[in-house]
From TrEMBL:
Lineage top rank: taxon: Bacteria
Gene3D superfamilies (alphabetical): 3.10.450.50
Pfam families assigned to the protein according to its UniProt record, in alphabetical order: YchJ_M-like
Family listed: Belongs to the UPF0225 family.
InterPro entries membership: NTF2-like_dom_sf, YchJ-like, YchJ-like_M
Coiled coil stretches, renumbered: none
Residues annotated as domain YchJ-like middle NTF2-like: 41-135
SUPFAM superfamilies linked: NTF2-like, Sec-C motif
This protein's name: UPF0225 protein OIE14_27670
Source organism of the structure: Micromonospora peucetia
Length: 138
């Protein structure tokens, strides 16, 4: 069972995208979340998945997960607020690649305390679209 997506109040169409692009959410990761476009690169998918965590879009997270590693359900912590994304490194994952990796640091606050999740995520194309395969601690 997939929980219904929750949205944060700052997730309006004109607000800045959580991925840090500087673009409005609606024209950046919001397009991908709504299914209007697919991520062109592994890094774009990584950024859109970070934004999905930030806005609580579990449906998008599950849809963008490889079928062989996708969990049956995903429960996000409502007390965790994602505060910033740093892309550390990318390896392949371009327009003409079939695989790619993105190393990142995702910053958050939970219970009033700051935290960071560091990971090297692997991405592959499934049915022509970039999807998240798995990740190793970064």
């Amino acid at each position: 069972m997939v929980k219904r997506s929750r949205r944060r109040a700052a997730d309006d169409r004109d607000g800045p995208c959580p991925c840090g692009s500087g673009q409005p959410y609606a024209g950046c990761c919001g397009r991908l979340h709504r299914g209007e476009a697919d991520a062109a690169t592994a890094e774009a998918l990584m950024r859109s998945r970070y934004s999905a965590f930030a806005v609580g879009d579990t449906g998008y997270l599950l849809r963008s997960w490889h079928s062989s590693t996708r969990p049956r359900q995903l429960d996000l912590d409502p007390g965790q607020r994602w505060t910033g994304l740093e892309i550390v490194d990318t390896d392949r994952g371009g327009l003409f690649d079939a695989t790619g990796a993105v190393e990142f640091r995702a910053h958050h606050r939970a219970g009033g305390h700051p935290g960071t999740q560091a990971e090297r995520s692997r991405f592959v194309r499934e049915d022509g679209r970039w999807v998240y395969l798995d990740g190793l601690p970064g």
